[in-house]
Design goal:
single chain; mainly alpha; Four Helix Bundle (Hemerythrin (Met), subunit A); 7 helices; 5% strand
Length: 167
């Protein structure tokens, strides 16, 4: 029961005593709040990451991008979503901004199930996401922090639009 109370406190569930437990969903108002928050915070992380990223870390991001594309080609949404999560988390970690990462993790976790649902409903991992990641990677490869941040912000806001179209 304690675990359920923790889920309720985090906004993942609603408990009606002696009746039921319901997993809560994100409303359109929450989409409009969470995605701009993700865009701003991830943009900040990517901007910082562009200044610090090593060749090995860039190679890892490119490998994750290839993994997403391969998973999409095989209609394996769960694997693509996992590689996508690793892609974003690596960018957060490289930034070296622990407080921002903590906030991002909370917001990200709240939307994980929706990313899986969105990709499943659309028939696979979004091709648009792959193209948006390419723009982020090009900016990182060019050593352009401002362009990388803008590409991440666009990616987040377009993801919000795609998610709203499927719900």
């Amino acid at each position: 029961m304690q675990a359920l109370r923790c889920l309720e406190a985090a906004g993942f569930a609603r408990i009606t005593p002696h009746k039921d437990v319901v997993v809560t969903g994100l409303s359109r108002a929450e989409f409009r709040e969470r995605f701009p928050l993700l865009a701003a915070l991830e943009g900040l992380c990517v901007c910082e990451s562009a200044r610090k990223i090593t060749p090995a870390q860039r190679a890892r991001l490119h490998a994750l991008q290839k993994e997403m594309a391969a998973a999409r080609a095989q209609n394996h949404s769960a694997r693509a979503v996992q590689a996508d999560s690793e892609f974003h988390r690596l960018l957060w970690e490289v930034s070296g901004l622990p407080q921002v990462i903590q906030i991002l993790q909370e917001v990200w976790d709240r939307g994980e199930s929706y990313r899986v649902i969105m990709h499943a409903r659309r028939g696979g991992f979004a091709q648009e996401s792959l193209a948006e990641h390419e723009q982020i990677l090009k900016a990182l490869d060019a050593g352009d922090p401002a362009r990388a941040a803008k590409a991440m912000e666009r990616h987040r806001m377009r993801a919000m639009q795609r998610l709203q179209q499927t719900t």
